[in-house]
Design brief:
GO molecular function: metal ion binding; poly(A) RNA polymerase activity
Low-confidence stretches: 83-92, 206-215
CATH architecture of the domain at 1-165: Orthogonal Bundle
Mean pLDDT: 77
Shape: globular
Order of helices and strands: HHHHHEEEHHHHH
Domain PAP-associated: 99-154
Protein name: STPAP polymerase
Largest sheet: 3 strands, mixed
Keywords: Magnesium, Metal-binding, Transferase
Number of helices: 10
Length: 276
C-alpha cells in the first residue's frame, strides 16, 4: 500500500502547481549531469530520482507562501493516510527559473547531517532519538537524512555517503553562483551555451570556468605565450586568464577524476620567478 500512497502523493503534487513537474525534471537532469544521480561515478552512493523528487517537493513546501502543503495537512483534509483531496495552495512568487535558482541557494548550505528533512511536517526537524514520532522508529541516520513521507522509518538517502553529500552541496553552491552571473541572464555574443542550457551540460558551470561543452575545456595559455606575467593579465574578451586556467584544472580534478578539492590561497601571486 505504501507504493500506492507514494504514487498518488507524487501525482497530487504534480497536479497542484504547473511548475512542480518541470522543476523536478530540471533538478534530476542537473544532478545526473553532475554525476550526483542515476548511474554516475558515485556508484551506489548517488541520489535516487525518488530522493531528488522528494527534495524538490520539500523545497516547495518551505517557500513563502508555500507551493505545496505538508503531508500532515493532506491527512487532515482526507481523514486518512491516503491524500485523496486536491489542495488549493496559494501561488508562490517566482517563475520556474527563479525557483530553480532558489533551490540551489537553499541546499547549497543546508545541514543535511544535522537535520531531518520531513515532508510529513513540511519542515526540517532537529535530529531526535529514533523512538520519537518525528524521527520514526528504526530510522537510519547518516550524512543525508531525507525521511519518506509515509514510511517514517525509511531514510530514502541512507545510501548517500558523506563525500557525495558534500559534493551535492558544493554543486548547489556553484549552480547558485552561476544563476547570479551575467552568463545565466544574457545570451553569449560568441555563440557559447548560456542560461539554462549551460546549466544542464556536463561539467562545471562556475563563471570563468571556460567553455562548458562536455569535457571541452578552453585554456588561455595560447595568449599567455609571453610568460606567467602575461598569464596574470587580462585576456581580450575580459576575465582573468590565471583564474580560468585554475578553474579548468579544478574541473578536471573534481568533476572528471572525482578528486576532493578545497579552496585555498596562494602564498604569493605568480610571477616571472615562479614560472607556470
Amino acid at each position: 500500500r505504501l507504493a500506492l500512497l507514494n504514487t498518488r502523493f507524487l501525482r497530487l503534487c504534480a497536479e497542484a502547481d504547473e511548475r512542480v513537474r518541470p522543476l523536478v525534471y530540471a533538478v534530476r537532469l542537473w544532478a545526473k549531469q553532475r554525476g550526483l544521480a542515476g548511474s554516475g561515478a558515485g556508484g551506489g552512493s548517488v541520489l535516487s530520482n525518488y530522493a531528488l523528487t522528494l527534495l524538490v517537493l520539500f523545497f516547495l513546501q518551505t517557500r513563502s507562501p508555500a507551493v505545496l502543503p505538508p503531508v500532515a495537512r493532506l491527512r487532515e483534509l482526507a481523514g486518512t493516510d491516503c491524500p485523496a483531496p486536491r489542495p488549493s495552495p496559494r501561488p508562490a512568487r517566482g517563475a520556474g527559473p527563479a525557483l530553480l535558482a532558489d533551490f540551489f541557494r537553499v541546499f547549497g548550505d543546508f545541514d543535511f547531517a544535522g537535520q531531518l528533512i520531513s515532508l510529513r511536517e513540511g519542515r526540517a526537524l532537529p535530529l531526535l532519538p529514533p523512538d520519537t514520532p518525528e524521527a520514526g522508529e528504526g530510522l537510519k541516520l547518516g550524512p543525508f537524512n531525507l525521511q519518506d513521507p509515509f514510511e517514517l522509518d525509511h531514510n530514502v538517502a541512507a545510501n548517500v555517503t558523506e563525500k557525495t553529500t558534500s559534493r551535492f552541496g558544493r554543486c548547489c553552491r556553484d549552480a547558485a553562483k552561476y544563476c547570479r552571473s551575467l552568463q545565466f541572464r544574457r545570451k553569449s555574443s560568441k555563440g557559447r551555451a548560456w542560461g539554462l542550457t549551460r546549466l544542464f551540460q556536463p561539467g562545471a558551470v562556475e563563471p570563468g570556468a571556460g567553455s562548458a561543452g562536455a569535457f571541452l575545456i578552453s585554456l588561455p595559455l595560447e595568449e599567455a605565450a609571453g610568460g606567467s606575467q602575461d598569464l596574470c593579465g587580462e585576456p581580450r574578451d575580459g576575465g582573468n586568464k590565471f583564474g580560468e586556467a585554475c578553474a579548468a584544472v579544478t574541473f578536471v580534478l573534481r568533476d572528471v577524476l572525482k578528486c576532493s578539492c578545497v579552496v585555498g590561497n596562494l602564498t604569493r601571486a605568480p610571477g616571472e620567478d615562479s614560472g607556470l
